[in-house]
Write a structure and sequence with these properties.
Radius of gyration: 14 Å
Low-confidence stretches: none
Number of helices: 3
Structural class: alpha+beta
Oligomer: single chain
Largest sheet: 6 strands, mixed
Helix content: 25-40%
Mean pLDDT: 88
Strand order of the largest sheet: 1-2-3-8-7-4
Length: 135
């Protein structure tokens, strides 16, 4: 989130970080790329607030980015692995960032468990919620 502070301040957007005392094993460069892309998208759609979360849930490290915008349309809400079959190039958005995030999540494995992403609405602000689940 620190990389985005000047832009957040310039736009008058409040950024909150809500993280439990947790540990996890992940590729920091790949995860940073996913989070930077997700935060940039949240900046486009938020009204006033972005929230970064990190917690352990169901044995996974779950890192989320929430905003207080309109949320994801029904057609974008997704759980699991995103494939090019899931993409709609007619909307003007290729969703390549989401495809990249899904691919990065899948690269993280522990035993028979594999990482994934979840897109839904709600969270603390009622807007869009992006989550990356890492085993």
């Amino acid at each position: 989130m620190a990389r985005h502070v000047p832009l957040l301040q310039g736009l008058g957007i409040e950024a909150l970080i809500d993280a439990s005392d947790i540990t996890g094993f992940f590729d920091a460069d790949l995860l940073t790329g996913v989070l930077n892309n997700t935060i940039n998208n949240a900046l486009r759609y938020t009204r006033n607030n972005i929230r970064l979360t990190a917690e352990t849930r169901e044995g996974y490290l779950v890192i989320g980015v929430e905003d207080d915008g309109e949320g994801y349309p029904e057609s974008m809400q997704h759980t699991g692995t995103l494939s090019f079959k899931s993409l709609d190039f007619n909307t003007g958005s290729t969703s390549l960032g989401l495809f990249f995030a899904s691919s990065v999540a899948r690269l993280h494995r522990e035993g028979d468990r594999t990482g994934s992403i979840k897109l839904h609405n709600g969270g603390q602000f009622g807007g869009g919620v992006f989550e990356i689940w890492l085993p």
